[in-house]
Amino acid sequence: MRLSRITELLGGSLAGEDREITGASTLEEATPSDISFFANRKYREAALRTRAGALVTSEPLDAPCSQIVTDNPYLYFARVLGLLHPEPQRPRGVSDRAYVHEDAFVHPEATVYPLAYVGPRARISKGCVIHPGCVVGEGVTVGEHTVLHPNVVVYPGCTVGAHCILHAGVVIGSDGFGFAFDGVRHVKVPQVGTVVVGDHVEIGSNCTIDRAALTATRIGSGVKMDNLVQVGHNVVIGDHTIIVAQTGIAGSARIGSYVVLGGQCGVAGHISVGDGVKAAARTGIASDVEPGRVVSGFPSMDHSRWLRVQAAYKDLPSLLKRVRDLERKVMERADD
Amino acid sequence: MRLSRITELLGGSLAGEDREITGASTLEEATPSDISFFANRKYREAALRTRAGALVTSEPLDAPCSQIVTDNPYLYFARVLGLLHPEPQRPRGVSDRAYVHEDAFVHPEATVYPLAYVGPRARISKGCVIHPGCVVGEGVTVGEHTVLHPNVVVYPGCTVGAHCILHAGVVIGSDGFGFAFDGVRHVKVPQVGTVVVGDHVEIGSNCTIDRAALTATRIGSGVKMDNLVQVGHNVVIGDHTIIVAQTGIAGSARIGSYVVLGGQCGVAGHISVGDGVKAAARTGIASDVEPGRVVSGFPSMDHSRWLRVQAAYKDLPSLLKRVRDLERKVMERADD
Amino acid sequence: MRLSRITELLGGSLAGEDREITGASTLEEATPSDISFFANRKYREAALRTRAGALVTSEPLDAPCSQIVTDNPYLYFARVLGLLHPEPQRPRGVSDRAYVHEDAFVHPEATVYPLAYVGPRARISKGCVIHPGCVVGEGVTVGEHTVLHPNVVVYPGCTVGAHCILHAGVVIGSDGFGFAFDGVRHVKVPQVGTVVVGDHVEIGSNCTIDRAALTATRIGSGVKMDNLVQVGHNVVIGDHTIIVAQTGIAGSARIGSYVVLGGQCGVAGHISVGDGVKAAARTGIASDVEPGRVVSGFPSMDHSRWLRVQAAYKDLPSLLKRVRDLERKVMERADD
Question: Which domain covers residue A64, as residue numbers?
């Protein structure tokens, strides 16, 4: 694809030779037939030395290659990748090696691969791709152009929106963790709610999202979830929130919109995390967090405070020594 | 179902009108045809305002609806849900789209769904449900009325008791993590033990339970495990223990009965956690814990101590300042 | 198998009677027909009391059984287990209940079980075993004698080396977590790289390893990974590194060779962990670590320092009291 074709489709201004590029790569590994991007000043030297044939950048560089100048090079580069790597063409229709219940509906322009299972009254919409090993339970609705990668399980009665991507091994709608103790045993509280996943949601491999006890666990539109995330029953997650790998959200927590939870965070049950909150990796949120706060640590506190607490924490042995010295001095003085 | 029919079946005393209810919901979302419950004083206001047609409660409330009075409203409500949502009727028998080895035994009153795999000499007991995508290995025994949700894997030789529920993606019996270093490589120690799961056990989605190196990893009866929990080889877990999501238990640890491990806890290998221990979320248990203790933190300590430690920890910057002030004062005094 | 046959095959010197053993077990549970091993002084008493018919040990013990004396008893015992438990014979060839694309290559001496899926242009080498429920994507190569346990998913274009063991539910090659914000939405950055797994790698159940954004996520040869580990896109892991359960490694981190990451560790993105580093369980590595260091805590620090910090941390309430006492004394003195 020629660079001029790219700017024609995506905007930006081309500086330097209009050449053909055939691939995309990192600054270090790019060859003259590749396009790369410069979005982080840390990599300026690498950008100046790159062998790439073209660079996407927010400022013209003194680099020996063609450049496309644009406001948000990373976003632009994401779109270039979309042009260079169009979605593969898929066979349309239902494989005769899949199992589709006679009462299920599969749109003629959807794909159901061999060894996928689609239960009674499930509804697979236009453009969906159901990979091998997926199990779409009774009465589930999957919206248009949603992709279920291999071995995804959607329990009965749940709903997945349009343009979603569910990666391999995701489980939607397993029972929430609810038991009532009878003095001897933990008696199961039937989990009769459901899960509703919005549109344009991406969920990473082997994530688990439990169905509600009574109403619905809700994942807002535009939410992006990394791998191995756990979402408890009755949790509500607002739109465009980002949740990094191995984070866990306990039952009935409410997470706002545009929140970012770093990797390995934990959120306690029944609490509320306001819109736009950012939590650093490994934050343990045990009580409500107001909108817009940046938090860290366990239990979580303002990130700026946490930085000071951590500095003191790492220096505890020297603080201990200082207190010991003071005690000696004060004691000696008392002896005078 | 009429309220009088419910009290006839489950006990409790009915106050107010005997009406028909058709569903169950939360205090906030219930409608006049729903039953709800009041078990947490925090929600008293919500209970007084509810539109529910009936409430399960431990004390008669001045609420505008019928009430069922009982000692343990949450437990009672769990049972009401069981009445309102009976287990769905399932097709009996083995789907001709399943793969069942000719040397396997499947009870005629069990269900094996399409695309499930049952290996040689496996034994599927009466009332079991084996969902699509499950893989029941060679020689596995699954007890009566146990449900394997989609894509559960039970490795060869393992045993699952009766009335268990294994949620989607659970793996039982993968190799324990054992290697002997030969100076260059980590040589695999063959894991020739097994896993024995008791009765009435529930295991959450995508949990992993490793087989023993030599003998058996044992999960006691009545154990309830949330999603994404990891259990190492040779671990022994006592009856009626509760393990919340994303907790990990390292090899050869022994966990007592009626223990509660909160979410994202870690238990070190070869240690012992006594009966009735409660560990708060994110506790890291690195040494033995005596029966009945309540612990928190990492390394774990008594919860009451942890609360004081955490209070001091969060205030470290001010402690640092106080020590600095003291040093200045003592220094000034010395200069006098 | 007679003990003399074992020493003939594996070396070591036999002391005591040359007897027949039929199994292997722990010191506590062994019977006279079992062999056991003594490698940890902590278990000396158990070794002296064992009912085992034979012991592998590094020093002759005053125990009432035959002994095989060797330098590394645990390694030796691992090999004995291999002799006593040879790999089961498997049916060769492709089950007619599997789905193998007509453009895939499966070596005639490989095994593909019922309900496995092998996509177009995939290559299954000699001696491979592909268990039920596995999904081997388009163009994937699986090296000789590699075993994919049930429900493993390898996304298109990835490569798995020879003699690897991938446990149930492992996902290789799901999309890395990359999004560019356009002011309203998180726009997906297509993940067009791949995953390359070396030889002799073992990966635990339900681990997730993301494909690179552009180039390749690389898992070195001899790497051993426990269950539920998360590896982000573009991560590079050196040879013979060990990663214990539930650890997460964020995108573009570089982990050296012969590293050991304990359970529930976290490694931040774009950092470098040097060869031979050892991180205790639950370490959070947020910046580069030099080769050979032993680290703990979050943020990580030298393990010896962490021990002192932790001791002080647990004693914070008493430190607080000491500072309060000092303040009172200094204040009183000032009043004199």
Answer: 3-84
CA distance A174 to chain B (A): 6
Last residue of a domain, one of A84, A111, A145: A84
CA distance B62 to chain C (A): 47
User: In terms of Cα–Cα distance, which of A153, C99, A138 is closest to B99?
Assistant: C99
Collapsing DSSP to helix, strand or coil, A19 comes out as: coil
Interface of C with B in 125-144 (CB under 8 A): 131-133
B229 membership: H or E segment, kind and range: none
Chain A: touching chains (3 or more CB pairs < 8 Å): B, C
pTM value is: 0.96
Whether the pLDDT of residue B186 is over 80: the answer is yes
> Got the DSSP string for B122-170?
-EE-TT-EE-TT-EE-TT-EE-TT-EE-TT-EE-TT-EE-TT-EE-TT-
* Neighboring chain A residues of C99 at a CB cutoff of 8 Å: 97, 114-115, 132
Q: Do C173 and C118 reside in the same domain of the chain?
A: yes
pLDDT in tens, C252-273: 999 999 999 999 999 999 999 9
Percent of chain C predicted with pLDDT > 70? 99
The answer for A 196-225 residues in CB contact with C (under 8 A) is 200, 202, 204-206, 222, 224
Please determine, for residue A2, whether its predicted confidence score (pLDDT) is greater than 80: yes
Total beta-carbon pairs less than 8 A apart between chain A and chain C: 180
pLDDT digits (tens, 9 = 90+) for B6-46: 999 999 999 999 999 999 999 999 999 999 999 988 889 99
- The one-character DSSP state at B175 is P
- Mutate which of B227, B246, B320 to disrupt the A interface (most A C-beta within 10 Å)? B227
- DSSP, collapsed to helix, strand or coil, labels residue B238 as coil
Phi-psi region of A67 (alpha: psi -120 to 50; beta: other; left: phi over 0): beta
Domain with C50 in it: what CATH number?
3.40.1390.10
